[in-house]
Design goal:
The structure is a single chain. It contains 19 helices and 13 strands. It is globular. A hairpin with a 5-residue loop joins strand 7 and strand 8. With 423 residues, it is α+β, with helices and mostly antiparallel strands.
Length: 423
């Protein structure tokens, strides 16, 4: 991939900021102690680059009717940061796995705007009247208010952070927000409205519990008119990305998200976590986290279930309860889905730990480090991860959904790691 050295003033500012954060020049031998000083003295930390969008995603995700993705894509916190400029809004997208989701959401918004601008829809609005109920997406889940801004600290998840002690303590003393309690508050009207909303989301090929506030509001409004105004319009989009991409990497999760009422899904998730031995206070803290949408929560619970009866799953739930941004939430869920896939490779994991980062351990003591990241450059943080004493073992495998720079690949290999890119 060719790095773009030019670009706008904003791009140059981003590179300067990233350089100050990760580009301090040090002798890496002082940090790692795994190779001779002569070798590490030649190494410096890298600045996160700015790359060309055309080299990172297929053409159909970079431009289409009513939208285009900026040609330059900075790497921030090991994720590609795309910018979608569309006739329905401006969207910052942190991570390649999120790009097809947001592009599909742009198409959905276009379809919903087209639908809501018809005479028939205007008449149905009058018939529907004011919406007296919230969607379950808002009533039960406390979704995030924004999807823009600087990525929220994925890098910190590679350090040893507290396992949710504050959020778990708060959850244990707060009013009951469990799925069972919330299910009792859902009226028959809300159930019918929510079913219509999930049906419409399925037609559009989008997550009914999307973190996109623009789409979330539009789904709320149009679903109410369809439900209460008896507005029988087909919102199906003819060109859709596969549901397994649009929602999650797990087909089971997708069908469940569309077909199960939100309160029932929350109850099912809680019961599964309790069956794994996760303490009630930890379950409550996990379910209350605003950055973990119901779809992400369901994906994580399913990944933990697919791991089987391994030790330490309660640590992962506590760790996830500390997610402080959408990027962190998606990283945790994506990494656990990778670990669940690795479980099927014949060298099973018997223990998972999550003081930061998430780590799987095999029966022989081998280390498996999953990382749902796009582009890993050699930074001080990565050098520290490569040499951490608690990440030693007879074998050390890093699973990476994206790729490393040549320098990062060389340095991880010199530190004794086997890295599987594109996992």
């Amino acid at each position: 991939m060719k790095e773009e050295r030019g670009g706008s003033a904003m791009d140059r500012t981003r590179r300067t900021r990233a350089g100050r954060k990760g580009g301090v020049v040090l002798a890496a031998g002082l940090l790692l102690g795994v190779a001779s000083p002569a070798v590490w003295a030649q190494s410096t930390f890298e600045e996160p680059p700015v790359l060309r969008a055309a080299n990172l995603a297929p053409a159909n995700l970079l431009a289409g009717p009513g939208f285009a993705v900026d040609a330059q894509v900075p790497v921030e916190a090991f994720l590609y940061r795309f910018t979608i400029r569309a006739d329905v809004g401006l969207f910052e997208v942190n991570g390649s796995s999120l790009l097809p989701i947001r592009v599909q959401e742009v198409k959905a918004l276009q379809k919903l705007h087209e639908t809501s601008n018809t005479k028939e829809f205007a008449e149905a609005v009058v018939q529907a009247g004011a919406r007296p109920v919230q969607s379950a997406a808002n009533m039960l889940l406390h979704p995030a208010d924004t999807i823009s801004g600087v990525p929220g600290g994925v890098e910190r998840l590679f350090g040893r952070i507290a396992l949710g002690a504050e959020s778990i303590g708060a959850a244990s003393s707060s009013p009951d927000q469990s799925g069972v309690a919330q299910a009792g508050k859902v009226t028959a009207t809300a159930l019918g409205y929510e079913a219509e909303r999930r049906k419409m989301a399925k037609e559009l090929g989008v997550d009914p519990y999307t973190s996109n506030p623009v789409l979330k509001k539009k789904l709320d409004d149009v679903a109410w008119v369809r439900f209460a105004g008896r507005f029988a319009v087909n919102t199906t989009i003819s060109v859709m990305v596969p549901a397994s991409i649009a929602i999650s990497g797990t087909t089971w999760v997708n069908s469940t998200i569309f077909d199960t009422p939100a309160a029932d899904l929350m109850v099912a998730n809680e019961k599964k976590l309790q069956g794994m031995g996760v303490p009630d206070a930890t379950v409550k803290a996990f379910m209350a986290n605003q950055w973990l949408t119901l779809s992400l929560k369901t994906g994580l619970v399913e990944a933990l279930s697919r791991l089987g009866n391994v030790g330490g799953r309660e640590e992962v739930v506590a760790f996830a309860s500390r997610a402080a941004s959408l990027e962190e939430a998606r990283f945790i869920v994506g990494s656990m889905e990778m670990l669940a896939r690795y479980q099927q490779t014949g060298n099973p994991i018997v223990l998972v730990t999550a003081p930061g980062p998430i780590v799987g351990r095999t029966a022989s003591g081998g280390v498996v480090l999953p990382a749902a990241l796009d582009y890993v450059v050699w930074t001080e943080r990565m050098a520290h991860v490569a040499r951490r004493p608690d990440l030693q073992g007879p074998s050390r495998i890093a699973l990476l959904s994206g790729k490393l720079t040549p320098m990062a690949k060389q340095q991880f290999a010199a530190a004794g790691w086997t890295v599987q890119e594109g996992f």
